[in-house]
Design brief:
Elements: H1 9-18, E1 22-26, H2 30-38, E2 43-46, H3 50-53, H4 71-84, E3 89-93, H5 103-115, E4 121-123, H6 130-138, E5 144-149, H7 155-158, H8 168-184, E6 188-192, H9 196-204, E7 210-213, E8 221-224, H10 226-230, H11 247-263
Helix pairs in contact: 2-4, 5-6, 6-8
The structure holds 3-methyl-2-oxobutanoic acid (KIV).
3-methyl-2-oxobutanoic acid (KIV) binds near residues 48, 49, 147, 213 and 223.
Amino acid sequence: MPEGRPIQITDLLRWKKEGRAFAMLTAYDFTTAALLDKAGIPVLLVGDSLGGTMLGHQLRDGGPDTLPVTLDDMLSHASSVARGSRNALLVGDLPFLTYHVGLDAAAMAAGRLLKEGGMQAVKLEGGGAMVEVVRHLTERSIPVMGHLGLTPQSVHAMGGLRVQGREPEVADRLRRDIRALEEAGAFSVVLEGIPSALAQELTGSVEIPTVGIGAGPGCDGQVLVVHDMLGLTVGPVPKFVRQFAHLGEDMVAAALSFKGAVEQGLYPDTEHSYG
Ligand code: KIV
């Protein structure tokens, strides 16, 4: 672990000042959290991407769908991750509709992610009207990571999961939103699906660290969905993903090998049996 102790939100702010890039990965379960912690990944996100990776929710065009994810889903996966991780900073996504219908409801949902889910911070999507929510939570000592650009909970409003910020008016809105989120107290902002040059400009316009996904190399940190990073993706792999392993192929090969050994009576053998 980079600091030899549990990571705090203040470490991320310092790393930005020092120009130290950092990695963040999603995690949804105890085992993955323990292994990623062992690898020294400093920030783990219990993302609502679990709607696709863990629960199999899909949009009509086949892409992953985060809208059906509930707070109970998040609490179950978050607490599992919290039991597996010792040192990473743990961030949990607020699911759709838990922070859109009133500030008290948002504080209750976010508070539950900390209190019952074992998270140290929450993430929520959007600028504009969501800035008030960020302020409400941070004023109540709930650290918030923002999320701008391609925000999957707005898939229907965006007309699909599309890169954001190519049009000047959208780019200008992103410029305003990131400054508003910083001013409202967000400690970091995810920039997703944004042209590299704009993401780099947004990163330079604030003192809080940005974490990019499909936003080029100019962000302070980088995040990937762990299934994509490990080569476990079911369905199309997004353009921005580099697969650092091919565990999906390994899993199929291992399952075939197990099946063959069982069918041929080669497993279990004496070595793997009790006398
Ligand atoms: O839910 C998620 O996994 C995310 C990341 C893609 C940033 O929001």
